[in-house]
Design brief:
CATH class of the largest domain: Alpha Beta
Structural class: alpha+beta
Oligomer: single chain
CATH architecture of the largest domain: Roll
């Protein structure tokens, strides 16, 4: 056998095994990647502080994204609203001259509640007037916060971000998870 023939055969053997070598290399990279991912998942499970940090970061991203959607909604409709420290947006567009809302009073509202998509989900026309005792819960915290800004006879719009509404679960009926709510309402009375 000539040296040239040997070199040719060695080259032919190498090129035939190339797909095999490539497959082994990719398998090795994939298994190392999976191992690293499972190591980080184990670390999160074993270290509650790391898990908490991850959840906080995810929550910050979700709040920022929802806030951007709300700002875009306001721009498209050319609405000017004030914002509270909690993220509730409100505009009182008609002033009443009645009693100011306060903790312990029962608020009675005429209202329409929509999703940010515009879909009406609840309204006093269909569901009757909404009544709740201020400070007792039982309604969205953003609605309760907004009512405390009103007097009897006031008409207002509230944009309630999901963390002040029904949160991650929705209301298990008409409000989907992580929904921004838009209320247009009138405070009819305080009892």
């Amino acid at each position: 056998m000539k040296v040239q023939d040997f070199n040719f055969n060695l080259f032919a053997m190498k090129s035939c095994n190339f797909p095999l070598y490539l497959s082994c290399f990719l398998l090795l990279i994939f298994s190392v990647g999976c191992q690293n991912r499972s190591d980080s998942e184990k670390a999160e499970k074993e270290d509650p502080a790391l898990l908490e940090k991850s959840l906080l970061e995810a929550n910050k991203v979700a709040v920022k994204t929802e806030n951007e959607h709300i700002e875009d909604f306001l721009r498209r409709r050319n609405w000017t609203m004030e914002e509270t420290g909690s993220g509730l947006r409100y505009a009182i567009y008609e002033r009443g001259n009645g009693e100011k809302a306060a903790f312990g009073k029962t608020a009675v509202l005429e209202y329409t509640c929509r999703l940010i998509t515009g879909d009406v989900i609840y309204s006093s026309d269909k569901d009757g007037l909404k009544q709740f005792k201020i400070g007792q819960g039982g309604v969205e915290s953003g609605l309760e916060e907004g009512i405390l800004l009103l007097r009897v006879g006031d008409r207002a719009k509230f944009i309630i971000p999901s963390h002040l509404g029904f949160g991650l679960l929705g209301d298990q009926d008409k409000v989907p998870p992580k929904s921004t709510l838009i209320y247009d309402l009138k405070l009819i009375s305080l009892n």
